[in-house]
Amino acid sequence: MPTSTVPRSSLALRRIALFEGLADTCLERLAGECDWRTVDARTPVFTRNSDGGEVFFLVAGRARITTYSPQGREVSFRDCEAGEHFGDLSAIDDAPRSADVVTLESSVLASLRPQAFIALLQREPMVAMRILRDLAAKVRGLTERVIELSTLGVQTRLHAELLRLAHAAGVSDNQARIDPAPPHAALASKISTNREQVTRELNALAKSGLLRKDGAHALVVTDVRRLDTLVADVRGA
Amino acid sequence: MPTSTVPRSSLALRRIALFEGLADTCLERLAGECDWRTVDARTPVFTRNSDGGEVFFLVAGRARITTYSPQGREVSFRDCEAGEHFGDLSAIDDAPRSADVVTLESSVLASLRPQAFIALLQREPMVAMRILRDLAAKVRGLTERVIELSTLGVQTRLHAELLRLAHAAGVSDNQARIDPAPPHAALASKISTNREQVTRELNALAKSGLLRKDGAHALVVTDVRRLDTLVADVRGA
């Protein structure tokens, strides 16, 4: 990847949620152990099935964890914001990468070799506990997605995804403003369908008054409770 | 659940893979901390969305981790054999159960309260490392399943599942004997389709000579390499 090195900084590592509460001496040691680089937007950090077990800390910028089928269909998993980490699976089990990671913006990355990462987990039980909770959350999220893909139709999967985005954006007075709203193609790869079907379902929601465009980039869910009911009725939750 | 208590036994905990290599004193302490019970076949151990964070060690028997959609459709995750553990997600993140667990045979279960489980992880880094690897494996398995559900048709998903079963059963001379083969309904819930479609695809494979029934319960994959090629061609792997 086209990169330039950046100065090592324990201060920058303070921004990483995984390291919250660590002592200065510990962060200084980590800053020295990490490789540091800036990466342009739209640069692959690593690709699915490749070797390498470095753990990456996103000091600044944004990255997408995703993969592509041989037919070119994208299956996206999550977007990493500054302060998050990725790449720990391969450090833990020494197996190839499970997904592609690509930067969405120009980003600053610190990366730790797998041995140094495992040593950190053994030195700092607090960090190990966070990794356990983080993996547990991933198992839960993927389990939900398998259940949704197995039992819900495209329409309800889109409603469920909009509901997640609404709650992530913050609900106030039963409304939520998703800004920026993901492009239709990104929504499609998140719920495993095609862009056309997303566009059709979003238009149907707009027509029913549940969704409203706001400027070029934002979507407003006008009745979060009603959307919640739509999903709950199908799910039986 | 209908249960009867069984004697506490550190010897029985020796059968649990998670505890391999632990000192006798450590196992004796754990045996004392655990609740012990025998459970009949087809008994629910816990249900999705219920509270409770005990971690279960399957000393003897077999259990299925599964869930049901409101429409009654089963989505199954894995079968636990004697020596395995389950229920650790809720112990780690204090959230409700992510799936149902039901015994398939009469089983002996030891269970540890969440606080005692977390204390064990902090006392025994080897056990913590195994839980990390186990969660990483679950994230990988579920990621594959999401990718398969999102990008592969039912036919290829069935081929991929048969290939997994063949490799788990052991391949010798390019053949694998899956015994007992899962019922068609169980295969269907594993690859998120219906029983009729599984039956149709299995018949097609038998007709092509790739699969052969052997007695009442076994299936023989007659050409594992050809099955592998079928899946790889679609996956592009």
From TrEMBL, chains A, B:
SMART domains assigned to the protein according to its UniProt record, in alphabetical order: cNMP, HTH_CRP
Organism: Paenacidovorax monticola
Superkingdom of origin organism: Bacteria
Annotated ranges, domain HTH crp-type: 152-225
GO cellular component: cytosol
Keyword Membrane: no
Record keywords: DNA-binding, Transcription, Transcription regulation
Boundaries of every Cyclic nucleotide-binding domain copy: 18-138
Organism lineage: Bacteria, Pseudomonadati, Pseudomonadota, Betaproteobacteria, Burkholderiales
Alphabetical list of PANTHER family matching this protein: CRP FAMILY TRANSCRIPTIONAL REGULATORY PROTEIN, HTH-TYPE TRANSCRIPTIONAL REGULATOR ARCR
Protein name (database record): Crp/Fnr family transcriptional regulator
Gene Ontology molecular function: any one: DNA-binding transcription factor activity
Pfam family, one: HTH_Crp_2
